[in-house]
Structures are given as C-alpha cells and as structure tokens.
Amino acid sequence: MSGVLKVFVVSPDTRSERRFDPHLTIASLKSKLELFTGIPASNQSISVLNSETDPTVVAQLSDDSKPIGFYSVKDWQVLKVDDLNPSASFTGQLTDVSQVEKFELSDAAYAERNDSVLAYKQRHKVGRFASKTEEVKESVPADISVGSRCQVESSEPGLSKRGTVRFVGETKFASGVWVGVEYDEPFGKNDGS
C-alpha cells in the first residue's frame, strides 16, 4: 500500500475528511485524531466502517504498534472514533444542548427594545407598520359602454382612428380601467383589434 490514504473520520462531536500515510502507526494515528476529535489517545477505540452509507465494521484498529495499512484500510472508508471514558473528556458536551440555559425574551420586553427588527420596522414604516394608503379606484365613465362607436386621437397630428368599444374594465396585466377598441381599419396589433 503506498501513497496517501483518504478516509472520513467521525466521532461524537466531529466529522471530517482526512488523509493519512498508510505507514503511520495506530499510536501515531490516535495522537493525530486527538487534536480534532478531542478524545485523548488513551481513551480512543477506532473502528473501520465500510462507508458512510454502510456502517458495517470491517476492522478494529486495536494494536497500537501496527501501521494503518496492516488493517487493509481503503480510501473513503470511515474511521469511527469512540471515547472509552467520556467522563475524562469533553465528548458529547459540545453538542449536548440540554445543558445550555436558553435565552428567552418576552414579547413585551422585546417590544421595548430599540435595537430590534421590530423597532426598525416601526421607525421605517415597513411591513405591517407601513401606512395604509387607500387605493383610489378609477370608475368607468358612464358614456363609454361596450358596443359604442368612438374616435381615438393619435399622437400623430391629423390622424385619428374610428372603431367600436369591445372591452371596458380592469385587467390582469395592469391596474386601472382600460378601454379596448376594435378599429374599423386594420391598425394596431394583429387584425386591428
């Protein structure tokens, strides 16, 4: 076995991808693992698992004098490091949130703070604190109805178009009241409508 061995290392508090020399002894490996698992070398029990998806134990790295290569560890297998004496280390304490006192703030106390998101929204009138402006609804002029004849003035001087009102009301594509006119001659989109 030559080159570098690429494995995943998992412990109660960590998970990482590591590279080791296959000639490294188990004792040296344990010293290196202590640095990032937090488990003292003397308390480590290292199992080799097939893969991250297959937790079958294929070897137990039990002889500290043997090199990793002796156990036929392959690339991308998992070295599972267990703590034989968790009371002597911090194992599990970093991920156990049951021992952490939770910070709680009542709604009333939060509302009194001036450095909160709520205070920011109130100061800048954002979200539910935005001023409620009543939308002025346009009304349809009484003298325009569907079927009426009309003349539409153009932006070009002297050019006006005559047609029939085919639609009056609100649309989905824009706000306000719209009047749809079908021209007598084929001007405009498609067939003049």
TrEMBL record:
Gene3D superfamilies on file: CAP Gly-rich-like domain, Phosphatidylinositol 3-kinase Catalytic Subunit, Chain A, domain 1
InterPro entries: CAP-Gly_dom_sf, CAP-Gly_domain, TBCB_Ubl, Ubiquitin-like_dom, Ubiquitin-like_domsf
UniProt superkingdom: Eukaryota
Gene Ontology cellular component terms for the protein in this record: cell cortex; microtubule plus-end; nucleus
Any single biological process term in GO: cytoplasmic microtubule organization
Chain ranges of the CAP-Gly domain: 169-193
SUPFAM superfamilies on file: Cap-Gly domain (SSF74924), Ubiquitin-like (SSF54236)
Primary subcellular site in the record, as a coarse category: cytoplasm
GO molecular function term, any single one: microtubule plus-end binding
Localization per Swiss-Prot or TrEMBL: Cytoplasm
Keywords: Chaperone, Cytoplasm
Family: Belongs to the TBCB family.
Record-given protein name: CAP-Gly domain-containing protein
Organism: Collybiopsis luxurians FD-317 M1
